[in-house]
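Figure 2 data, in text form.
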Amino acid sequence: MDYKKKFSKKALNDFRLIDLAINENDQKAYSEIMKSYKNSIYFTILKMIKNKDDAEDLTIEAFSKAFKNLHKFKKEFTFSTWLFRIATNNTIDFIRKKKLYTTSIHTSLKDEAGQNIELDIKDTNLDPNEITIKNEKITIVRQLVNKLPKKYQNLVKLRYFEELSYKEIAKKTNSPLGTIKAQLFRARDLLFEIMKNKKSQI
């Protein structure tokens, strides 16, 4: 296929980075991919759920899942469309679980290539396939968290696995709310670094 005729320069550069990441385990390629899409993925998710903390968490999960399945990406569509689909599907799973109907069933978003991504939010009950996806997501997050310094692991587990709010975590750990927010912000940055630098171990 003549990719140069079908895709934009940005899409072609994404393909180049993906080839480097898959074939040579090039950590700089993973870093560039994340840098290119981190903010747009975050704000797409934030538009869906209206919660900055959850949007940060779901952004980490989206990249983790994308990097784990990068070898499955096919150059029939732009990488941005594939990545945004992973992010939105993961967020829809979260919305179903939490029953957070902050986005209309008929709402659609656009990825960076201008492709529409329809949001299909239906039944809130998880079917067997969704349960499998949920368990896979939990496994991915646990693998990431176990690579964090010990001082961050407990906070992240309270946030991810016990699903406590920042205020609840501050109360449970008897720590100032500002400290909890700062430490969890740092923990998220570390999680991104782990995904970039140790992808093969995730």
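Caption note: The chain has a mean pLDDT of 77.
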